[in-house]
Specification:
heterodimer, A: 231 residues, alpha/beta, 6-stranded mixed sheet, 4-stranded antiparallel sheet, B: 285 residues, alpha+beta, 10 helices, 8% strand
Chain lengths: 231, 285
């Protein structure tokens, strides 16, 4: 599903954002990507959705070898991924419904099929009643749910979430996290970057920890690479 | 395509201020170009009117038989440069002199013998009304045995030539400069519209929109803005023209083709400006 093999990523101004990172995330898995700010969590995600090129090593995502991916094929890759951010990234001048529908429209989905698909995912994230609301009329947790609905509407095989609860209070955090767990339970792989260790402890999921660009712990392999970093 | 049109039109509704600002900027840029165009059009017309008077007169030796003259007249009319060759007999010349030279009427009335020679007046086709061709035709006219003298106001034709060259050079340089300024201003305006929506573009890319899909509404919108700006510019130019016509001088307005060309120019700048801006933006992010 997602496979990193000896991946290096250099910062544009020198220095390494990722140093020799290797891991494999299987279909349907739930993985936490942890580490301090600047450890490389976001960089890993950005490489996965081809926002940045790999400096060396191999990244494979959902059948695509990213080193060989042409610029014009990037949209095809992204249609198989759902992406959620800390800052929601909703379009302020469109309703919740329109924000979700937008993701379908840009991929050329059949017009007639859009409303039903949008309502289905909005129901799934528990926001069917607020379909007509604009982002500014929604709480942070609700906005993140709209963003998740938008990520889900194309039925991705993987949901990438970059600090999805970073801007939310505790209650909203719990709600969004539960939603991600439900999504995972229905078969979608979830990769969630977070530095909220409480959250990580709550669930029995695999943890990949990065430190200064290096993978220092992976609970998915038998032997942790660095005992000191075990949470 | 449906979606492209909808997205392009929605942009006007979502950012009415910026859209109005772009259209206004485009309109005024094209208005400046248009005003200059009006000046050029009228200057050219004035020069054409003046050039209309470029004429070569071949005075004939007295007693030349009319048959010879008629054949020569046909020959002259067959010159590629010549539009018309008109024979003016001695009598016609005198009558014309009497009616045109009013102050000499008495002198002309008292003449016993007509002192005026017959002539052939040669008018050139518009594109040959310059010193070189006038000289050339005059030279050939001198070659006819019965032609006594050829007159065409050499100094005057040369001055007209010079005036035309200056007008063309100034028109080209100033026109190009104005057009360049318009392109830069319109390009910047469109760039602003793209930057204003950079967040939206980023989100479109994240959810898997192709570059072509992102680009199309911008191109349509750019062309629409350019067209609207062009139409407003024509309106403004017409207003300026009406004022000038009423208070200053009798002027000419653009022909329909020229007006369409200005609107088309606006559309093209809008379209290609958008293409360049979005293209650059998409390559960068």
């Amino acid at each position: 599903m997602i496979k990193f093999t000896n991946v290096f990523k250099a910062f544009p101004k020198g220095g390494l954002a990722l140093k020799d990172v290797s891991f494999h995330i299987a279909k349907g898995e739930f993985v936490f990507l942890t580490g301090h700010s600047g450890a490389g969590k976001s960089t890993v995600l950005r490489l996965v959705y081809a926002e940045e090129p790999v400096t060396s090593g191999e990244v494979r995502v959902s059948g695509f070898n990213l080193a060989e991916l042409r610029h014009r094929d990037i949209p095809m890759l992204r249609r198989r991924l759902g992406i959620v951010f800390q800052d929601f990234r909703l379009l302020e001048d469109r309703t919740a419904e329109e924000n979700v529908a937008f993701a379908l429209e840009v991929t050329g989905a059949r017009r007639a099929s859009i409303p039903a698909r949008v309502m289905r995912v909005l129901t799934q994230v528990g926001l069917a009643a607020k379909a007509q609301a604009y982002p500014r009329e929604l709480s942070g947790g609700e906005q993140q749910r709209v963003a998740i609905a938008r990520a889900l509407v194309n039925e991705p095989t993987v949901l990438l979430a970059d600090e999805p609860t970073g801007n939310l209070d505790e209650r909203a955090t719990r709600g969004v996290f539960q939603l991600l767990r439900d999504i995972n339970a229905s078969g979608t792989a979830v990769v969630m970057a977070t530095h909220d260790l409480d959250l990580v402890r709550q669930a029995p999921y695999r943890v990949i920890e990065l430190q200064e660009g290096a993978l220092v712990y992976d609970s998915g392999v038998d032997e942790p690479r660095d005992q000191a970093a075990t949470p | 395509m449906n979606l492209v049109i909808r997205e392009a039109l929605l942009a006007f509704r979502r950012a009415p201020l910026l859209s109005t600002l772009s259209v206004t900027t485009i309109a005024f840029s094209l208005f400046v170009v248009g005003l200059f165009g009006l000046v050029a059009v009228n200057l050219q017309q004035a020069l054409r009117d003046v050039a209309e008077r470029v004429e070569i007169v071949a005075y004939l030796l007295p007693g030349t038989p009319i048959e010879t003259i008629t054949i020569a007249q046909k020959d002259i009319e067959a010159f590629p440069e010549v539009q018309a060759a008109t024979y003016v007999s001695e009598d016609q010349a005198l009558r014309r002199a009497r009616s045109e030279l009013v102050e000499f009427r008495d002198v002309l009335q008292e003449l016993e013998r007509n002192p005026l020679p017959a002539s052939i007046e040669v008018k050139l086709n518009p594109r040959f009304r310059d010193a070189e061709h006038v000289n050339d035709v005059a030279e050939r006219l001198r070659g006819f045995g019965f032609v006594d003298d050829v007159r065409f106001g050499r100094d005057w034709v040369e001055k007209l030539d010079r005036l035309r060259q200056i007008a063309a050079a100034v028109g080209l340089v100033v026109g190009a400069a104005f057009a360049a300024v318009a392109i830069i201003i319109i390009g910047t305006t469109i760039r602003m519209a793209v930057l204003q929506r950079s967040r939206e573009i980023a989100i479109m890319r994240l959810v898997g929109a192709t570059d072509g899909f992102i680009r199309r509404p911008f191109l349509l919108q750019g062309a629409l803005k350019g067209m609207l700006g062009g139409l407003v510019a024509i309106g403004l130019s017409f207003g300026a023209y009406a004022l000038i016509n009423r208070w200053l001088i009798h002027a000419e307005f653009f022909s329909q083709e020229q007006a369409v060309a200005i609107v088309g120019f606006g559309m093209l700048i809008g379209f290609f400006g958008s293409a360049a801006s979005v293209g650059r933006h998409l390559r960068r992010v």
